[in-house]
């Protein structure tokens, strides 16, 4: 199997051949290609991470939704860069699960950060496995995250946001997968158990399986000793920003925080003033035209006529000022909303408002 990690023995052989045959042929770096593919995995394992790195992530999620720099096989936790929200714990019925890896492609896809280090172990043992007991998930609430909302000195490096983390207990080892609850056998089966154990090399573990067995769906936090981080779920910041644009474009005209709310409110208010002004102007005209002296049909009442005229003038000012102002501001709100829909790729179809690709 061709791999990107060149062992010293292979390197020595290459130099030996070079002295006889001249310049050695260039070697294709398959690791870089596999890392490029691995970067598309939105649910990478973290069981192969060093304990200190998992502890750093575990500490960071207590302060808010964590941002990471995820490029190729590199996943760096930006512990001082968080979004303004907190994770909520969702307890699960305890579940046993095992994942077995047989080739380098699977290795890079499932364990991108530790793939280069584990590739030699996979080559030697033929397979790697992680046995897990899953008891719950830390989940980010449904939020809209803009890059500007991230707080911290390292946020400029952020590429993704961690939206979920699976917790429980795990054991990473060489060889075939096993039942995580089964320890070494005793009595007549002790020899077979010891033989299986000697053929398998533990590469890392965390969490107490016995503590996990007692987990309940009513738990509000992981059981003590059973909160090891096993897997994370990430979403690119670009997707969050895209979701925000789409969500904003579909917000009602008067929704709080919408960029078109203020002109919409002003437009509606002034348009209402215009409508009221039209009614007042009509009443004033009627009063002024019917201002006649009740004791003398030939002589109108000057005071009543003046009052009607004044009312008509005030109504006219309100009408001719409010109507165009209201139409103008409502047009501004409509244009802003239309531009947001266009920027978000939304189109009005016979089936309703949908994304346009």
Write the layout of secondary structure elements.
Layout: H1 8-21, H2 30-38, H3 51-60, E1 65-71, E2 74-83, E3 88-101, H4 104-110, H5 115-125, E4 128-139, E5 160-174, H6 190-198, E6 202-206, H7 209-213, E7 228-236, H8 237-249, H9 261-289, E8 292-293, E9 296-300, H10 302-344, E10 346-349, E11 352-355
Antiparallel strand pairs: 1-2, 1-5, 3-4, 4-5, 5-6, 5-7, 8-9, 10-11
Helix pairs in contact: 2-4, 4-5, 8-10, 9-10
Structure, briefly:
This protein has helices at 8-21, 30-38, 51-60, 104-110, 115-125, 190-198, 209-213, 237-249, 261-289, 302-344; strands at residues 65-71, 74-83, 88-101, 128-139, 160-174, 202-206, 228-236, 292-293, 296-300, 346-349, 352-355. By secondary structure, it is an alpha+beta fold.
Q: Could you characterize what this model shows?
A:
The protein is of the alpha+beta class and 357 residues long. It contains ten helices and eleven strands. The chain has helices at residues 8-21, 30-38, 51-60, 104-110, 115-125, 190-198, 209-213, 237-249, 261-289, 302-344; strands at 65-71, 74-83, 88-101, 128-139, 160-174, 202-206, 228-236, 292-293, 296-300, 346-349, 352-355. A hairpin with a 2-residue loop joins strand 1 and strand 2 (74-83). Helix 4 (104-110) packs antiparallel against helix 5 and helix 9 packs antiparallel against helix 10. The radius of gyration is 35 Å and the shape is elongated. Mean pLDDT is 79; it is low at 1-30, 183-195 and 346-357.
